[in-house]
Amino acid sequence: MRQRFSPDYYINGILTGDRLILSRAITLVESSRPDDQALAQQVLEGVLPHTGGSVRVGITGVPGVGKSTFIEAFGTYLTNVGHRLAVLAVDPSSQRSGGSLLGDKTRMETLSTNPNAYIRPSPASGALGGVAHRTRETMLLCEAAGFDVILVETVGVGQSETVVHGMVDFFLLLMLAGAGDELQGMKRGIMELADALCITKADGDNVANADRARVEYQNALHLFPPTDTGWFPPVLTGSALTGMGVADVWQTIQEHQTLTAQNGHRTQRRQQQQLSWFKGLLQQRLSQNFYARPGIADRLTALEEQIKNGTMLPSQAVDTLFTAIVP
Ligand SMILES: Nc1nc2c(ncn2[C@@H]2O[C@H](COP(=O)(O)OP(=O)(O)OP(=O)(O)O)[C@@H](O)[C@H]2O)c(=O)[nH]1
Ligand SMILES: [Mg+2]
């Protein structure tokens, strides 16, 4: 039985930047137990006025592109210039024990012992919606604890990158030089989401390759319809090994933030994200509520039988179900 603490214990602990209490609060947020969830909501409400103050950055790219190594270099750079950084992960597809970041603590050796960095391994895999919902709340807790840059790492396969895009101010896509788009499992869609591309591993023999890839991708991006934000996603090159380009990425993020803060798109983006978070939760609740109603399971089974036999149309079945439960 885990020890129970009061909401104030968590709230005060987080606001004074106590990392142990922050970790405990995140565990609470990640718990699916109803009593934990109720307490987590109280804690979140308590810290809410102290949230929103960070730059939220999503980082994605195919496995092996160098996300973790980049975050180690980038994170170290950020703390060196005076920032406090939290690293979170959305990795629902991960079959690796404990999610990617846990094993990655070794790859983020410097960062994991850095007093100005906080690395939180991804929660145990579950429904994508559930994981994302917790990452959003974890982000709020980290902001309340005084972290002013939040990095959210996700593997760029599947739909998790869309989910992460929906919770950050800036979305960075890491790419490899030399590997074809198909090879990178990249769909055009994910490039369209990116606020910047960075060609990784631009060191040693790979520098010329990386420069070539930069030009190619920059040309490819020009073919995309422009967004209404006034921002044109640049393509950068970088090396986590030599540190080349790491400062440029931060420079780019700052330019993007300045521009979108001035023209209102930063606020607009966050407002849209809040709304879709709300709508997602509402939909989840409605559907849970629906399926939990007495008699629904039996009715469903019966209707599904008729649909399979072709004796009822799906639309008809939906009507029947709704007239039965909504008077
Ligand atoms: N030469 C060179 N190698 C790098 C660089 N960054 C990463 N690597 C190597 O590329 C490999 C993959 O790096 P990771 O950082 O684990 O990649 P990842 O994107 O986090 O991979 P997953 O967590 O599996 O999705 C490792 O062997 C790194 O040492 C770089 O800047 N230059
Ligand atoms: Mg990794």
Automatic annotation (TrEMBL):
GO terms for cellular component: cytoplasm. It holds the Pfam family MeaB. Keywords: Kinase, Transferase. Coiled coil: none annotated. It comes from the Bacteria. The keyword Kinase applies. SMART domains: AAA. GO terms for molecular function: GTP binding; GTPase activity; kinase activity. Residues 53-221 form the AAA+ ATPase domain. Belongs to the SIMIBI class G3E GTPase family. ArgK/MeaB subfamily. This is Protein kinase.
